[in-house]
Design brief:
464 residues; alpha/beta; Rossmann fold; eight-stranded mixed β-sheet; seven-stranded parallel β-sheet; 20 strands; disordered N terminus; binds adenine
Length: 464
């Protein structure tokens, strides 16, 4: 597809299925959602989440007054949840025209999508359970709106922009300064894209290293007020939530194997231990493996852990962390779940091919009968279990992640022309501001340095 015929009018809409699919254009914009009648349910969910998101609410209030996005279009590819809805509304309050599609075919909350369209005038292209073709068509539908700013959770918008569109970078002199202007089409200037998740940041940094990245990107995931809280506490809790909703198993006394000891993995391992599980960590990074040991976990290789684990959870951002060979080594009754962004962390497709039979036992719980008679259980088709089998991270933690996303969008507006085609972190001052606002909302008082202490810390002469 070239940039000249890239228009929403050309997009084929999803084929009619058994379910009612609402699509088309109403007075409030284009959309493709399951059922607008779900809007009142979604609205209540959005309002409840919004009550737990005081930092985003404050930023939204500022956006509403100052309209920093007036005249701009923002396209987002995020999990369509009640928390994301609050972010979309904040951007809309700031004057942006907002278009949203899903960052996973199974994480969309259809009622939330309906409410965004019907109640808030935000265009959504997302239907829970959409097939891969529809998923990518929805990404195209958002890009067809020519967003100047995009937001990703998994880098699908950025990757599609680079695969399907031509970006022209020009240096324009303005007011004595040389500006870097990124144009996708003549009338489509692109300011930048922000990325929510570890997997997306890994993809973007690989693009940067290869010299393939052609637009400025902010890795929101790298902000302390994002990964230290969302990845650790959010993933920790919501992964357990998803596993329990799908299985209703007892975690106390369970032999749990957590693959990956990044911020997500350590969140999962810590919370599992808190529930009384006996946790083994699988890692490839020696420093992280050592940390896991000193945090009191057993560290082992997957080939060995596969033989004694009862519940396996992957959270690495990598592929084939549990190969088919290791799935075969597991004891009958083993349960396997993934909490990483893509459904490639264990070899689900290999298991599907290898198994003699499969059946769905409960929502998001699938039994595989292996040729030797063993049964292995997989949650949510290997897709991220916290969003597929539960509702993702709680709003309190998404409050900080999405405050950072909102401020990243503002960062692109304020730094128009100044950014290079590279992966940036948000400035430290934004992290500090988000943390202060969160503490204030939580009514937590904390100390500040005295003048004497500040001087002491900035001087090198004073020793004793
Ligand atoms: N990622 C993890 N949890 C999420 C949530 N509740 N909403 C949007 N994205 C998420």
């Amino acid at each position: 597809m070239n940039s000249t015929n890239f228009d929403v009018k050309d997009l084929k809409l999803a084929p009619e299925g058994k379910k009612k699919i609402e699509r088309g254009s109403n007075s409030k914009g284009n959309h493709d959602v399951k059922d607008l009648d779900l809007a009142s349910e979604g609205r209540k969910k959005i309002e409840w989440a919004g009550q737990q998101m005081p930092v985003l609410r404050l930023i939204s209030g500022e956006f509403k007054k100052k309209k920093p996005f007036a005249g701009l279009t923002i396209g987002a590819c995020l999990h369509v949840t009640s928390e994301t809805a609050n972010l979309m509304m904040a951007l809309h309050a700031g004057g942006a025209e907002v278009y949203l599609c899903a960052s996973n075919p199974l994480s969309t909350q259809d009622s939330v999508a309906a409410s965004l369209v019907a109640d808030f005038g935000i265009s959504v292209f997302a239907v829970h359970g959409e097939d891969n073709k529809t998923y990518y068509r929805h990404i195209d539908a958002v890009l067809a709106k020519k967003p100047q700013i995009t937001m990703d959770d998994g880098a699908d918008l950025v990757s599609t922009i680079h695969k399907k569109l031509k970006i022209q970078i020009s240096n324009v002199k303005s007011g004595g300064k040389l500006l870097n202007i990124y144009n996708i089409m003549k009338d489509w200037e692109f300011l930048g894209s922000s990325e929510e998740t570890t997997t997306g940041v890994i993809r973007l940094k690989a693009m940067e290293k290869d010299g393939a990245l052609q637009i400025p990107v902010v890795a929101v995931n790298d902000s302390d007020t994002k990964h230290l809280f969302d990845n650790r506490y959010g993933t920790g809790q919501s992964t357990i939530d998803g596993i329990l909703r799908a299985t209703n198993i007892l975690l106390a006394g369970k032999r749990v194997v957590v693959c990956g000891y990044g911020w997500c993995g350590r969140g999962i391992a810590g919370k599992m231990r808190g529930m009384g599980a006996m946790v083994t960590v699988v890692e490839v990074d020696p420093v992280k493996a050592l940390e896991a040991v000193m945090d009191g976990f057993l560290v082992d290789r997957i080939g060995k852990a596969a033989k004694y684990g009862e519940l396996f959870v992957t959270a690495t951002g990598d592929k084939n962390v549990i190969s088919l060979e290791n799935l075969k080594r597991m004891n009958g009754g083993a349960i396997v779940a993934n909490s990483g962004h893509f459904n490639v962390e264990f070899d689900y497709d290999g298991l599907v091919k290898f198994a003699k039979g499969r059946k769905i036992l409960r929502n998001n719980l699938e039994e595989f009968l292996l040729p030797d008679g063993k049964k292995i259980y997989v949650l949510g088709e290997g897709r991220l279990v916290n969003l597929v089998a539960a509702e993702g991270h709680p709003a309190e933690v998404m409050d900080m992640s999405f405050a950072n996303q909102a401020l990243a969008a503002l960062h692109f507006v304020r730094n128009r022309g100044k950014l290079k085609a590279k992966v940036y972190r948000l400035p430290k001052s934004i992290d500090t501001r988000v943390a202060r606002l969160k503490l204030k909302a939580m009514k937590v008082r904390f100390d500040s340095l005295t003048l004497e202490q500040r001087k002491y810390l900035s001087s090198w002469q004073e020793g004793t």
